[in-house]
Amino acid sequence: MPSRSSVRLPRRALKSPLSRPLGRPLAAPLTRTVRSRIETGRLVLYSILAGALVGALGIALRLVLAQVVRGGAMLTGYSPPGTPGEGGLLMAFGDALPYGLLTLPVVAVLAAWLTRDTPSDPLSETVSAYHRRGGTRLSTQLRLLGANLLGYGAGLPIGRDASFTALGGFSARLLSRFGRLSVAEDRTLTLASVAAALGLVLHAPLAAAVLLAEVLYRRFEFEFEVVMPCVLASVSAYAVYGLAFGAAPLFDVPTLQAPSALQLPMYALIALITTVIAWVGVWLSRLWPQGWLSGWPRLVWAAAFGLAVAAVAAFSTPVVLTGGAGWTQLSLSGFLGGEALGFGGWKWVLLALGVRLGFGGGVLPSIAAGALLGTGLNATLPTPLDPAVCALVAATAYLTVTLNIPLAATLLAATWGGDALLPAALISSGLAHSLSGQLGYVDGQLRDRRTAEMQVITPTTTILSAAPPPSSEEALYRVAVPMSWLGARIGVLSLPAGVQVVGLERGEDILSATPDLKLQSGDVLDLVATDAAFGELRDLLNLG
Which of 33, 35, 169, 390 could form an SS bridge with 378, CB 3.0 to 4.6 Å? Predict the structure, then answer.
């Protein structure tokens, strides 16, 4: 047996880390699995923190909304019914005063001016910002919040959820400003914050989390990666919010009996009629010429819309004022009959007219219109059914059509009406989604995930990734050339370290990115960039 000294091991060149050339980074000592676990834990922590922040801000917003509504009632002479979950009363007070209603066009113009950079409702802005891979600026979120507070308080057909949605976006911008977030974390936590805010106003945190993952696409597809952060943020926000206001459901729905097999076809008929009505409303809303939705024409049409709301409230019914959550409660409680069909019809008209101007998008206005229509349709049947079931079935169908969220609409109906409502709600949402096509009220909603991977938008908004990254460190981005770069050569572009131009799309041609190639209007740059470099490029172009 050879002695230990006689065993010769192969000699290897030993290199000290200190012998590396200066400026070269040391190799990462962590494996990809370990890094993934650290990133996941970091996202979980940030999601809980985002939810807690939204919960605290939501308490303050509810107190502010109470004062805003009180001021609006003094101005117009009318106070709409409220919901038990928000401490409201199931009756309206006062009559709408003509001189008070004349403030509506003024407020509508002011709200349109405040949101001149984002001519859409807060939910549409959230969806658009996610797909363009850049958050809305903090100042823009503040203007969105202020515009919706003013509009809701004055009586425009805006739901409480619009203000809470804007609050969620504002909270996400605060977290992004003071936390060192990557672009992916920023996008995910923005959705999580908005889901948390919607969970507060809807008193349904889990349904709100699903809603944000589902509303991004018109087809029945989800962003599964954001579901868990949305759930964590929604639950933690609702826990904080509940410390101040409790955890009562938004609507007080009587105990419902499961519909019988003979009743299901009648509920399906109500869902079918509501689907057709909602689809026609969405189609009419798309007839607005794009040139009327920005600049001074938008201000003019906002004033006209405010006058229309005031006229309907003064000469027909004040039900059209505010989002209508209180009238939804009256429908669920069986206090409305055939007159609800007319109320829902006016809601339908004003939603179709106002949603592209930024008035009436979101969840609660669609729920109110659907619930009123369902209650009114039920009164026309030879043998009326349970009014609460009819209201929720129609609200599910209406919400499915306007926001393309069949699963979230079903979960909301089950949250408020109980598990016994699930068969009728599933039939309603499935029927509505299969028949309504891919229209909707949400601007920025893409057809499917594949479309999201290939979309290019102009840098007047932000930059969009074109394909999923081949690794966790680099991704391919397609960027429309900014106006300030037109005429410049690729070789003189000042790009952050980690950003490389790999190609240029001009019309249907793909050109090699040579240093002497000049950029022209309509060109699209193909870039390869790390996640951190992408964030630096976004900040360099001041895109959100």
Answer: 390
Going residue by residue through the chain, which has 544 residues, state the pLDDT in tens, using 9 for 90 and above: 444 444 443 444 444 333 333 333 434 444 545 455 556 788 899 999 999 999 999 999 999 999 999 998 888 888 889 898 888 887 877 788 888 899 999 999 999 999 887 767 899 999 988 887 666 788 888 999 999 999 999 999 999 999 999 999 999 999 988 877 777 788 899 999 999 999 999 999 999 999 999 999 998 888 888 999 999 999 999 999 999 998 899 999 988 888 888 899 999 999 999 999 999 999 999 898 888 888 899 999 999 999 999 999 999 999 999 899 999 999 999 899 999 999 999 999 999 999 999 998 889 999 999 999 999 999 998 888 999 999 999 999 999 999 999 999 999 999 999 999 999 999 999 999 999 877 889 988 888 777 665 444 333 333 333 344 444 456 777 788 887 788 888 888 888 888 888 888 887 777 888 888 889 888 888 888 887 787 788 777 654 4
Please report where in the chains the tokens 């609660």 appear, as a residue: 364
DSSP secondary structure code for residue 79 in this structure? B
Dist CA 64 CA 89 (whole Å):
18
d(CA 429, CA 272): 10
Q: How does strand 509-511 pair with strand 499-506?
A: antiparallel
CB contact burial 379-390 (16+ within 10 A = b; e otherwise): beeeeebbbbbb
Q: Whole-angstrom Cα distance, residue 475 to residue 528?
A: 6
Return the structure tokens found at 465: 């990734």
CA-to-CA distance for 222 and 224, rounded, in angstroms? 6
Beta strand 499-506 pairing with 474-480:
unpaired
Contacts 24+ apart (CB under 8 A), 172-180: 172/50, 172/135, 173/135, 173/136, 173/137, 173/138, 173/141, 174/53, 174/138, 175/46, 175/49, 175/50, 175/53, 176/135, 177/138, 179/46
Q: How would you class 262 by CB atoms within 10 Å of its CB: exposed for 0-12, middle for 13-18, buried for 19 or more?
A: exposed
Q: Which token pair is 345?
A: 């019809």
Gap between the Cα atoms of 59 and 200, Å rounded: 9
Point out which residues pair with 506 in neighbouring strands.
509
CB 58 within 8 A of CB 236: no
CB 528 within 8 A of CB 502: yes
